[in-house]
Amino acid sequence: MLKILGKSSSINVRKVLWTCAELNLPFEREDWGSGFRPTSDPGFLALNPNAMVPVLQDGGFVLWESNSIIRYLAGQYGGQGLYPAEPKRRARVDQWMDWQATDLNRSWSYAFMALARQSASHRDTVAIEASCQAWGQFMGILDQRLSATGAYVAGDAFTLADIPVGLSVNRWFETPFDKPMLPAVAAYYDRLAGREGYRLYGRNGTA
Predict the structure, then answer these.
(1) Per the database record, which ranges form the GST C-terminal domain (predicted)?
(2) Which of 163, 159, 169 is nearest to 135 (CA)?
């Protein structure tokens, strides 16, 4: 059975849990990270020297980095519908996964830590405002894309890309600040809620 190391409130762990739900994969999960067993533990560092969650153990195979993990799971366990083999269709999925991990994540980092997590080290009002503005700009790009597809980020079908992007959309709605109206993003949020994996690990009140 698959073993997933990481606390279930982590957005990156939730990517893996949601992917397992989409693929109907049973798993065991152990709580690691802030508030649980420390990732500085030598046993954990032997699995991931970066001291970050999640870590996947599939028998003797160990993998870290959440997007790499979910790509592996789709490839290993019959997830061609989520992660197509055809190069152009796969590249479109990868494009939006990488965009979420880089451009979108960087934009909301400071604002999320300040407004949702109430971090004492994120109290610079200028930095908060700049982060909110950047976040809104990137969400506007997503809104345009979803308006064009009328469905999901990579096209008309749900794919692996919708898992990290969907979790970021949950974080957008769960973080308290004045947001622009993004009707395609709001419709996408409701569309994802029809999926059991999203109800369990995405739109579950956890940002």
Answers:
(1) 86-207
(2) 169
Put simply, whether the predicted model's pTM sits higher than 0.85 gets the answer yes
Helix (H, G, I), strand (E, B) or coil at 62: strand
Task: Report the top-level CATH class of 87-199.
Answer: mainly alpha
| Cα–Cα distance measured from residue 145 to residue 151, given in angstroms and rounded to the nearest whole number | 9
Is 166:204 a contact under the CB 8 Å cutoff?
no
Contact status, residue 146 vs residue 168, Cβ threshold 8 Å:
no
State pLDDT tens for residues 135-183: 999 999 999 999 999 999 999 999 999 999 999 999 999 999 999 999 9
When pLDDT is averaged across residues 48-57 and rounded to a whole number, the result is 98
Where along the chain do the CATH 3.40.30.10 domains lie? 2-76
Q: Classify domain 2-76 at the CATH topology level.
A: Glutaredoxin (3.40.30)
Whether 83 contacts 71, CB under 8 Å: yes
Give per-residue pLDDT as tens, 97-137. 999 999 999 999 999 999 999 999 999 999 999 999 999 99
Q: Tell me if 4 sits within 8 A of 11, measured CB to CB.
A: no
